[in-house]
Amino acid sequence: MDSDNRRRRVTTTRHLHDLAGSPSEDVSPLIAQSWRRSRQAGVIPDGSHLPQLQYVEDLDLRRRLVQCALPILDRLHDDLSDMSLSVALSDEHARVLVRRDNDPVLAAKLDKVYFAPGFTYAEELVGTNGVGTALETGMAVYVDGAQHYHESIQYFTCAGAPIHNPTTGRVEGLIDITGLTHTSNPLMRQLALGAARDIESALRATGSIKQQLVLGEFLVACRRRQTSVYSLSCGVFMSNEIGSRLLEPIDEAFLREEAQSMLDPSRVAQFDLRLPSGGSITVKRTLVEHGGDIAGIVLEVEATSCPTKTVQPRRTVPVFPGWRGLRSNGTGVEGS
């Protein structure tokens, strides 16, 4: 069966699926479930109207994920130089961060559907696709032509593989390989999966260095004075024995969340913080850097009975300025 006939058959299957909501032998359960989620999210598959995509102007291209992924993206791009394929990196929110092209015709077609840096290809916005569906399922996927829910991207075939943080297990981002349907090959999924594993290995290596640096500063703070000490590095939050007794569980969880927003050089080094339980603490923050990047922070914390100046909690993780456009072991240490 040629690609046009197959596309028409799968598109007809999707229309029937939308009407009846029943699975079909023409598509896998993974694709059928993604179609169902796309329909429930309100995605309209009509190809005459592009989805309303979210766009972020300033991308965080200094984050560790990007720095670890760039050499692997470049190598994969070179390996695929004789094929009409594009390689892209997205973050954990399905925002495209970087795209590498080796075919100007394919690149122009991808730009036309806004599969480009800054745009979000979440499944709930675009429907079934290699980026959003892989992030939604946490699995490597292969979405071929008409298996895409939205008709505007059914001329592409894409393979996506999630990239997991080797320390926390959380999804850090995704690697995607895209080509036109008539040049597709199921091996694209294995290529994406292999690249994702290589990026995870790079994250593990750099994470170990950063965590060792932060641990060193953590132990220095523990020896310097008898106080509660906490640290955050590569998603790992840690306290000394005194710190494990200082805070209630709800307050420690709160401090861990707030520590994410303290990874910002512009914040003051010492401040008071009001806790959910009603108490207050004085926090002395030390930033630990590695190669111009922030490796983590160490917090020295004391209970405060009458705070004078309280820093209001910040719920968002800071974003560094990025590129724009469509192109481009001590005793008494506890982990929690």
UniProtKB/TrEMBL annotation:
Residues 1-25 are annotated as: Disordered. Residues 1-14 have a biased composition (Basic residues). InterPro entries: GAF-like_dom_sf. This is GAF domain-containing protein. It comes from Rhodococcus rhodochrous J3. The lineage of its organism: Bacteria, Bacillati, Actinomycetota, Actinomycetes, Mycobacteriales.
